[in-house]
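Late entry, evening session. Most of the bench is empty. Finally got around to the prediction I had been postponing all week. Sequence below, unchanged from the version circulated by S.P.
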Amino acid sequence: MFGIFKRKTKIQSIAQEVPSVLLRLFGDKDTYTPKEIDQALQELGHDKSKDLSHYQYAYGMFANEASYEQLGLTDELGNYGHFQREVGKMLLNTPEPIDMHIYFEIARQHQKAGLSLTHQEVSESDGV
């Protein structure tokens, strides 16, 4: 049970952070190459040697099926389509794969919520 929760938390974190970096660095695409995903994760401070699963989940979420299979992720994460549907269930409670534009919106909403929280914290500290 704890493993599923940890996996969901990691996938949520990836969906909230990585798409905006991919969009900024490489533009609006349907999928991204493993090299592009690596660069985005590195920019966010992730180390592939210390957390390979973070990279594997990101590849599964943002790369195409050919890259997924070439990286051998079927052994780690299961069938590409199944993994895509699993992510859809975790993030949006729908058994459908999520396209990049939905990921961009998830990341945008997360950033917007973070900015609102930061603004609220500043406002509250001004009043003390």
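Two things to note before I forget:
DSSP finds seven helices and no strands in the chain.
The radius of gyration is 16 Å.
Will write this up properly tomorrow.
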